[in-house]
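Sanity check

After download, print the first record. It should look like this:
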Amino acid sequence: MTKVCIIKVVSVTMRNNDLNTLQNEGLEHSMIPGLDGLRALAILTVLGSHTKNYDFGWMGVQFFFVLSGFLITGILLRMKESLPVQRYFKAFYGRRFLRIFPLYYFYLFLLGLAAWQTDLIPFKFIQREIESNVQPQLPFAFLYVYNFLHATTGYQHTPFLSHLWSLSVEEQFYIIWPLILFFTPKEKIKTVFLTAIALGPILRWATFLVYQSHAFPSLLTSPYLAVYVLPFSHIDAFALGAFVSQFSLPKPRIQLTVLAVAIPVLGFATQYVSYGSIRPDTLGYEFTLSGSYKFIWGYSLLNYFFALIVHAVHRTGMWTRFLELPVMQYLGRISYGMYVYHYAVIWFMIQAQNKNREALDLSINYGTARTYFLALALTTLVASLSFRFLEKPVNDLKDRFFPLKA
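Expected structure tokens:
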């Protein structure tokens, strides 16, 4: 009898310790089996797009949005239950600040330094890119409104900044979502999620109409690209992630099997109707989804599919053996740094190759597997150094300055 009591006490103590650890970690990605691996899949997909090996890599950004909605909603709702209002906002925004800002602003600081002292840059092609495209757009990235600039005629593509539109969208989500969840009663949470999911296609349609009217000369002439980069368009991605963090979906494995076939079939069919041909490297969903009104329903369908994947991994343990492989965990852990640095790394590789092709031809060109794996290796190296010496030391301060334990 005494042994049974001791075992029960130890068991309860261990569960309480696990709970305290979970609270102190804020449900960081390492606490949820498979989540690091999913982030790794997302960044590997994006990398393939920017090396021009396939076109469907843009979907990796949508996957990141769904994952963010899933992770942040779980954190916020647990904080809401255990912390008073002042601690709730202070802890969340403080922890996000330490997780996101150091790397982001370090990267922008390097670009700002390069823009200030362009003459010291040894490569002329980098000088020209910094002076003509980076320097005038840098303030918008600094203020996390680069996605709004991206939707105007003032936008200029540059591999140093163009991918940061999605980080602006994420940060805008982090500002608004904690407020919505805090002031929403528990019994209304599901209604809020479903409303946000329904608003996604409606807001995309409204954005499209505004841009298609050409009523404002400063707006982009391509309504499809504007829909892609503006935050209103992705509310359903975050909301679907939020939904599966709290509620179950019926038979996720069966749904995944059906949709894995139905989504590309539908995509290729509508692509053929719109253009008279199909592009296998798009999986039927070309960048910006310009055909067959896919910019309305295509995002929703893909977001739901990604939410199903997250749900199945989290609730049923699907693919966790693969997703928990050390290499997948590690790539997922440094995926934020990989995303920030990768586009500049790819561009530099290609430009350096082109400038020195006569002296040294390594066949580093867009659309080759060699380029993909070299970019992966270099990006991983840069992101690893950043994580080791910048991100992790700052991130480790979260529990010291913004603890979640009640």
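If your output differs, re-run the checksum step. Summary of this record's structure: Residues 342-401 form one domain.
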